[in-house]
Amino acid sequence: xxxxxxxxxxxxxxxxxxxxxxxxxxxxxxxxxxxxxxxxxxxxxxxxxxxxxxxxxxxxxxxxxxxxxxxxxxxxxxxxxxxxxxxxxxxxxxxxxxxxxxxxxxxxxxxxxxxxxxxxxxxxxxxxxxxxxxxxxxxxxxxxxxxxxxxxxxxxxxxxxxxxxxxxxxxxxxxxxxxxxxxxxxxxxxxxxxxxxxxxxxxxxxxxxxxxxxxxxxxxxxxxxxxxxxxxxxxxxxxxxxxxxxxxxxxxxxxxxxxxxxxxxxxxxxxxxxxxxxxxxxxxxxxxxxxxxxxxxxxxxxxxxxxxxxx
Length: 311
Description:
Elements lengths: L8 E4 L1 H5 L9 H13 L4 E7 L5 H4 L4 H7 L7 E6 L2 H10 L3 E7 L2 H8 L3 H6 L1 H10 L3 E7 L3 E2 L3 E2 L2 H13 L4 E6 L6 H14 L5 E6 L6 H10 L4 E4 L19 H10 L8 H15 L7 H10 L6
Parallel strand pairs: 1-2, 1-10, 2-3, 3-4, 4-5, 5-8, 8-9, 9-10
Antiparallel strand pairs: 6-7
Helix pairs in contact: 2-4, 2-13, 4-5, 5-8, 10-11, 12-13
């Protein structure tokens, strides 16, 4: 018999992962309004943006993140986090009022080299300083591994490499771990096996998260496999917007609307309300002109509004 959790946390990443691959940067006022809509829908964890000082804006499109953090209204009960990779990014995040860091590194050597110009071994050396900065400032840490399953450059990512990275995360104070299918290459059996193996090796981790992409149409199927393995959090993006700044033609994250429809139908509690969620997704589509969007629920909404039959 299949076993699924009674409730999970849906983490919204459109304002970071969704927007970073655009050819332009979303204006601060627009992002602030969208953050309000996301919170109105009942989302309780939001990845607002990235702190990547010194990185190419052609790659990240996140220069306004410090301003967004300083100006946004923080809802009680909502966690506002940011992605970063270096101590410099951590200092900028602290100065901007960020209270949760998502420390990110790739499981693929070539991918990480393309993003940062460093090796994985060089990257994890910075975790200790990030951990000290977080501890000194009361900031929570989430350790995140891109290309945690399969890499288009290196093939299957060894479990031992994941273990080494997770040990580095835990040693710097991270209590949550996210495994990311950044290229959308994983399949359900692999997702289930990797989460099972990592949970057995690291029972001290307080929460496990899954970050799926839908490049090969496996996003929701892989999410079900992760839920079977017992993960507690899933990342998704309004209107299915997303991609990867390195994989230029990759499709985006799984749609938050489609994910919530699936979870609602399975009786898995999320606290998210569909109608305001659909409106927030429509805001995203307008902001980006429909670029890189991929949501079945939003397509059905368009058909309904045009008076076309769908059943």
